[in-house]
User: Fold these one by one.
Assistant:
Number 1:
Amino acid sequence: MENEKIIIDSSFSAMINAPIEKINIPDWCFTLSDQEYQSCSPAHVAAGFTTSPEGKRMSINVEVLGGSPMVQHYVEQLAEPTYLILESISDVFTPTGRVNIYVHWELSVKKIDDNTCEFTNRVISRPTEGLIKALEKQGIPFELFKTQRQPVSIYHNQTETPLFAKSIERHALEKN
């Protein structure tokens, strides 16, 4: 990790009305249509999937948070039907230029009963050295940047989580 400072560590959960055996989060993530991704948040602009230079699956997401467009290059780190970890060095386009933020995204599901699961959407973001230098160059203390960024990012995660859960539920029920 380039920098252990944390900008955001946000986690929210929502219910999925489908048996855990029918859920496959990596399959959902890496086949998610652009339209379906957009339906999960007004901040979502576009989504697609490809492979990383190392041959790992990659989800490309574009969203606008707090007025700043972001391009996220989520590379698969761990993929199990009920647990997916993705990591991205995300491009953030600010009024003063392009910077990068490291984003760790975890999606998991745990069984509640035979027909219900709890979905958890966790996002942890950290600054890259380039972001720290850009903030210093502008005279913006990291803690101020963090304080301003948190409400937007936390609200985004909170509002997209139940919509992601419904999308995963639809995917699980359509597949079987």
Number 2:
Amino acid sequence: MRPVLVAVAFALSASAVHAAGLPNGVVYSANEGDGSISEINLTTGDVRTAQIAVLPHNVQISPDGKTLLAVGTSVVKAGGHGTHGGEGKTSDNGTADSHSGIDAGLLILNAGQLDQVPETLPAGSHPSHIVTSSDGRYAYITNADTDRVSVVDIQGKKIIAEVATGGYPHGLRLSPDGRELYVANVSDNSVSVIDTESLKEAARISLGKAPVQVAFTPDGKHVYVSLRDEDSVAIIDTSSRKAVKNLSVGRNPIQLYAAAGGSKMYVANQGSDNNPDNTVSVIDTKTQTVIDTVVTGKGAHGVVASSDGGFVFITNTKDNTVSAIDTSTQDVVATYSVGPNPNGITYRSIP
């Protein structure tokens, strides 16, 4: 794909509440409502929002922290990401899924200067989520309407493989050792396990209703999977590749992420469009029990943790905010106003 020239305008936005003691880092939210990315400076509390060339559903910082990867559909042609799998009880922005088969892209931006013209690479059809290989050379992107994961060689600037998955692949994460990708298949009620060396599906694990996202524990022994349509989280033993437990959480859980040294798993409960939830369920990964519920903002959706695991950040799609949770107290210690309909979120540490 040819590079796309993008007019980028920054807007400063003060946080509603900001607390000292947050790590020296930056949080980025993918604002699907208007095709922008918000950049939160945790040291100062300042928020800058930049318009980009796609309606981003997901963002991911590169392993070296130098580039920000965003996936989405053309601002001109697309109406939004739509629902996670069509039939579910919740959607991202209440619009119909309108971008099957239209032009889509992967943007590579300078993480420190989002106003630079980004590079645009192919991302397949209906790109939803993105993660990178451990060395940052490859990007793995779910394509929901073709039931594939696209593998993009970032250096070579091309798609090198299309890996078949279950129906409507959405969230995905790379194992800590980099050998496997776990992919949540929303309409197939399963998780695909992809071998990153052979780039083939090695296994498919049957689960409950509408798995949306997955999250590894740092030791790689377990994968937690949000089951949107049954308000629960399944726990997979990666050695046996079988679900070993199911935990009830809030309504319509979407994203989840390990923090606090891997001792806790944070699950964002989005709820429905008409009745959004505003909670985050906290799971003790040792006892595999829900130990707390944190109130954030309406439509809690995206989850990421700081590098030290001391804080978790949540996008609230209906409130257009990002909440910061102290993982030692489970208190919301800061709230930031960002662009409309924030979905995906990622964290960059600043040395």
